[in-house]
What we know:
By secondary structure, the chain is mainly α. It has one domain (3-149). Helix content is 75%, strand content 3%. It has 9 helices and 2 strands, in the order ααααααααββα. Keywords: Membrane, Transmembrane, Transmembrane helix. The chain crosses the membrane at residues 29-52, 64-83, 95-119, 125-146.
Amino acid sequence: MNDKWERLLWSVALPGVGQLLNKDYIKGFLFLLLEMIINLQANFNQIILLSFHGRIEEAMSATHYNWLMFYPCFYFFSLWDAYKNATDSSSKFAFFPFVFAAFSVTIGLIYSPVLYVFGKLWGPVWLPILFLFPGLMIGFIFRGLARRYL
């Protein structure tokens, strides 16, 4: 497996691990610390557990949105940073999918308490995940256009 994909996938599992594998120890430990702080303050593990059990209303009431709003941008920055530092400098515009994913997931989180999709609420876990896919698609389109025309 290519180093950049290994770093990226480890960061998907836990932000900061990709940085540690890239031997960027200060940033890696800082990201691990930030992951724990935001996760605990947002009550994210409980939200995930409740969402996986289909208890969306309970998940929404357990969510500390002021803290959880930090998570998408932090998470996708961590992914991009691990990916970027494991690649050569020729991968121009690789940040576009990460930026648009962070933006779209944040929008999904903002609307998660009020937006009904297919007649039901999806909550603070599932709706942001649904919003991830359009964000990634837009990011890849922008990356392709930037590579072609810039």
